[in-house]
């Protein structure tokens, strides 16, 4: 068994859909990024890559490579899953936490878990998504950004 941790943060920007956990969430702003800006999926990718002893998401899918411009982050997650399978690993469990002031994500967590599970080819009961606020402190607390942490267990 191997364990890895991932973290990502993206600032809110106008005129972009909010993609989080592989689904579009109704909100007045989206997240900035070379891809769709999905901070949760990026944190999960880094946790998985770290557990496999591989370079991070920025190395695997560089921002200066136009092939990844605007890419759906679930596609990156599927690629990461395929990469670790080639090394003989499989994701056993993912635990994550999203840090944001708004929007509330409780109504969307089950759909997120389903999308992530499909990309990783595992049961959605092996995906945990929690959320918390920053209690008004810092950029996240002011509603300027969303961050996510993830831990992945590989077998």
Uncertain stretches of 5 or more adjacent residues: none
How many structurally independent domains?
1
Major sheet characteristics: 5 strands, mixed
Find the CATH topology: 60s Ribosomal Protein L30, Chain: A
CATH H-level homologous superfamily name: 2-C-methyl-D-erythritol 2,4-cyclodiphosphate synthase
> Can you identify the CATH class?
Alpha Beta
- The mean pLDDT is 96
Please tell me what the overall shape is.
globular
Total DSSP helices: 5
Q: What proportion of the residues is helical, as a percent range?
A: 25-40%
Distance between the termini: 5 Å
Strand order of the largest sheet: 4-1-7-5-6
Number of strands: 7
Overall description:
This protein is an alpha+beta fold and 155 residues long. It has a single domain, classed as 2-Layer Sandwich (60s Ribosomal Protein L30, Chain: A), CATH 3.30.1330. It has helices spanning 39-51, 57-60, 73-86, 109-120, 138-141, and strands at 2-13, 18-20, 23-25, 30-31, 91-99, 127-132, 145-154. The protein has a 5-stranded mixed β-sheet. A two-stranded antiparallel sheet has the order 2-3. The longest helix has 14 residues, at 73-86. The N and C termini lie close together (5 Å). The model has no long low-confidence stretch (mean pLDDT 96).
